[in-house]
Amino acid sequence: xxxxxxxxxxxxxxxxxxxxxxxxxxxxxxxxxxxxxxxxxxxxxxxxxxxxxxxxxxxxxxxxxxxxxxxxxxxxxxxxxxxxxxxxxxxxxxxxxxxxxxxxxxxxxxxxxxxxxxxxxxxxxxxxxxxxxxxxxxxxxxxxxxxxxxxxxxxxxxxxxxxxxxxxxxxxxxxxxxxxxxxxxxxxxxxxxxxxxxxxxxxxxxxxxxxxxxxxxxxxxxxxxxxxxxxxxxxxxxxxxxxxxxxxxxxxxxxxxxxxxxxxxxxxxxxxxxxxxxxxxxxxxxxxxxxxxxxxxxxxxxxxxxxxxxxxxxxxxxxxxxxxxxxxxxxxxxxxxxxxxxxxxxxxxxxxxxxxxxxxxxxxxxxxxxxxxxxxxxxxxxxxxxxxxxxxxxxxxxxxxxxxxxxxxxxxxxxxxxxxxxxxxxxx
Length: 428
Description:
The protein has helices at residues 2-21, 23-40, 45-56, 70-79, 86-94, 152-155, 194-229, 234-248, 251-265, 284-303, 307-322, 325-332, 337-355, 369-374, 380-389, 393-421, and strands at residues 99-107, 115-122, 134-141, 147-148, 158-163, 168-175. By secondary structure, the chain is mainly alpha-helical.
């Protein structure tokens, strides 16, 4: 055994190093495809901003953006990152090349020698003041692109670019602010940092994911063992009917029924939300009860369709091992049936079940959109849906990054558990 482990560990090490190295190109491929889709999909944040400006100018939807000057339109496009072609914009989003931040355009009429500008930039979160997250600097700019009228240190981050054919000057800051710098961007819909919005929803997803997984394993493994031992009995047939009926009921349908009859009409449970409105005022014990009280119905809906797969996987694997030669040999040598099941057959039967533990990592991005909508749970599923519905592309890209990373780590962890539980597996 020592020799086999000595030979196996370097092979596994090399395999998992390659798997981790593949995360980067997979992430680049996935984000590049979605980033390209966001560039060509109509009805994005730029069009919405143009329509809003048109409505404020009372010009109607047919002349979207007509109330804006060309410079204002270009400034709006720059704000949403549509001022660059695909590859430069994508590389800036990654943080490989500097992004052109806080860009504005100044138009010069004939004979005009300077123009006043307000240089406005978003401060780092550590420097935010109450009700003020921006720093402004008053300056003047000349047609040659020279900035004046302010302290040199304040003007140092700013760059200018002269567009002679349009008789205007671009003013912007160059900053490496992308994925590689840990910046997922700012939501165009909520004007909040994407990373903050993801972290805000994460505890809810973790809670429901962990609770669902824990309850599934605690119920399905013993139930699968019981069904294997009682194969073709009343117990086996009755439980099979129950779990497959549950498997055939969509979770959102059951959620609608439960929230109407048990919550709205009977009043036994809250109709929605993760916690009550007075949660902060409760004692610790009351807070625990409040969370469990709100979570009971959603957990039932999350788990209703998940029992069948894990239960039948446990049952079928245990039945296969009970029919194996090594179990019959153990019984022939005097081992009781209980010992043959719990000591010999059960250990090997748990190997396929253990491999599913690797996907528990996906609870960080798990969530059922319809269940969250019905129970008014601000989880990850609802956040993903709203980001697509609102064409909030920074939020879409940020959620995609988190999902790809978490799912790939979960797959690698699943492979590791396969090798750990089954000594016959050798990754090469």
